[in-house]
Amino acid sequence: MTNWKQDLTLSLMLLGIAAGFYFGGLSYPRAAFLFPSYLSPMLGGLAILLGLSALRRKEAGTRFIDWPRYKAPAMLVGLVAAYIGLLPVIGYIPASFLLSASFFLAMGLPSRKLGLAVAAAASVLVYVLFAILLEVPLPHGVFFEGN
């Protein structure tokens, strides 16, 4: 990023995410908190370095934000927000399929059928890996509530 304001904003957002992961993980059992306890301070440290770098470049001047450049990231944030909202309602497999398929179709893959097939295969593969092999419960939603 060449704009120091964008870097500073990103730095503050990453610092907030790191703090959220760390303090949110305090309620986890000790073994489960091990990963967030190492990852969060590293992310926070890198966010601070990014912020300091942005402040050092402040004097170099700024340029206007090129908004069309942020179309894909904004779309991805919207898709993930919809996924989070739909996950408890429709369950893991349909929500994951919709997220993946929407992303593949929005990114303009040459073959829509291939994008839908990859989305379906990835959703089922992750479900089999976590729900069946690792026995990690995934959200059922209204479609699979009786199971």
Question: How would you characterize the overall build of this protein?
Answer:
Helices cover 72% and strands 0% of the residues. The mean pLDDT is 82. It is built from 5 helices and no strands. The termini are far apart. With 147 residues, the chain is mainly alpha-helical.
Short descriptors:
5 helices; 72% helix; mainly alpha; flat; 0% strand; 147 residues
Give a summary of the structure in a few sentences.
With 147 residues, the chain is mainly alpha-helical. It is 72% helix and 0% strand. The longest helix is centred in the first third of the chain and has 27 residues, at 30-56.
| Ends distance | 48 Å
Q: Indicate the proportion of strand residues.
A: under 5%
Please mark out the parts with pLDDT under 50 across 5 or more consecutive residues, or reply none.
none
- Shape descriptor reads flat
Q: What's the SSE pattern? A: HHHHH
Can you give the helix content as a percent range? over 70%
**What kind of assembly state do the chains in view correspond to?**
single chain
- pLDDT averaged residue by residue: 82
Total number of helices:
5
User: How many beta-strand runs?
Assistant: 0
- What structural category characterises the helix and strand content? mainly alpha
Let me know the largest β-sheet: none
Rg from C-alpha positions? 20 Å
